[in-house]
Design a protein that fits this description.
365 residues; five-stranded antiparallel sheet
């Protein structure tokens, strides 16, 4: 446990697994502060790997609120288990996903003779059902994050912040549906799970092996063409309902290499349609891992700030009265999901999304 990788942080400076993480919080915090100061003394005065560099370092801040890895978990109509994660069990009411290895830390923390963590790798993403996100006996209580209905071992993966965020989006959307329909969460799981899934997919939530089939999505009825297309990124991909592919594949339209900007993608309907809102989802480099490197994009990694392949500037045109008319535009974009609500709905047989610039990539996506 040599602290020579200081910028990574001392995630293994942990205590409390053998105490009561609720009642003994202050005592555990005081002990953690003591170990932290001991580590700082070691870095400054005793660590051969750090001593020379640490001469000019100063300790400027100490966090005072312990980060709780695990405390109480509530029981739902389903208890998510290790087997559910390892075997990638599908659920009718899946509303979120995870993929971090099952990551178990020893109860003794810093003083435990065992390694600071053990990992059980997962071969694929797993599904999280709505039934694990509401209480089985307090029927109007929902939960997300580290208190969900899961075993200790399953929680070793579901505890991750990004996984918690996905669960939070699912629970917030389900709660809104409960309020709108005047029903309890269990009824959403039993009767309205498909409708909830469609709403989540529309909001860019990812649900494994569940393509969108929203009947209100007019794009699904359209013939899709483009000015140009890369071989594996044909325009019809944008209406097949698949939000993200796994295993390194892609599911998007991308313009052909070397064609330059602008590039357009067109949706054409057999009869005119009234359009009031246009929802766009862009490529934000999810297939590339995060890094601090300045040359990250060329190394196949994400960069800090806007991702190069994300569309920056575009305009949307509608075929109105025999010519193309601009109906909406976006400038300086770096977001993945954009919703354009038109001030005045238009009636048209055809829409074009004209990509004028990305944040650096040569192809429109």
């Amino acid at each position: 446990r040599h602290p020579h990788l200081v910028p990574h942080g001392f995630w293994w400076n942990e205590l409390g697994g053998e105490g009561d993480l609720t009642k003994d919080t202050e005592e555990i915090r005081d002990r953690l502060v003591a170990t932290l100061l001991g580590l700082w003394d070691h870095i400054k005065n005793h660590c051969p790997q750090c001593r020379e560099a640490a001469q000019t370092w100063e300790l400027s801040w100490i966090g005072w609120v312990p980060g709780k890895r695990e405390t109480r978990r509530l029981l739902g109509d389903h208890v998510l288990r290790e087997q559910d994660l390892v075997e990638h069990v599908p659920f009718e009411d899946t509303v979120a996903h995870g993929g971090w290895p099952i990551d178990i830390h020893p109860p003794g923390g810093l003083y435990d003779p065992e390694p600071p963590a053990s990992f059980v790798p997962l071969k694929d993403l797993y599904s999280i059902p709505l039934r694990a996100l509401y209480s089985r006996n307090v029927r109007n209580l929902m939960m997300a994050g580290r208190c969900i209905s899961a075993t200790h071992v399953a929680m070793g993966s579901t505890r991750l912040a990004a996984t918690g965020a996905a669960m939070g989006q699912a629970v917030g959307t389900a709660a809104a549906m409960c309020a709108a329909r005047g029903v309890l969460p269990a009824e959403i799981a039993d009767r309205y799970s498909r409708e909830l899934q469609e709403l989540l997919l529309r909001q860019d939530q990812y649900i494994p092996d569940r393509p969108a089939e929203d009947p209100a999505d007019l794009a699904r009825e359209a013939l899709v063409t483009a000015e140009s297309a890369a071989p594996d990124c044909q325009p019809e991909n944008v209406v097949n309902g698949v939000t993200r592919h796994r295993g390194g594949e892609t599911n998007q339209w991308a313009s052909a290499e070397g064609e330059g900007m602008p590039q357009w993608l067109e949706l054409r309907w057999p009869q005119a349609r009234e359009i009031a809102a246009i929802e766009l989802t862009f490529d934000t480099g999810f297939t590339r891992p995060l890094t601090h490197s300045k040359d990250a994009y060329f190394e196949g990694r994400q960069v800090r700030g806007p991702q190069p392949e994300t569309v920056r500037d575009l305009r949307v045109e509608g075929w109105v009265d025999g010519s193309w008319r601009e109906v909406a535009a976006i400038r300086g974009n770096h977001f993945r999901k954009r919703v354009l609500n038109l001030d005045v709905p238009i009636t048209t047989e055809s829409l074009r999304v004209v990509v004028e610039a990305t944040n650096g990539d040569a192809q429109a996506r």
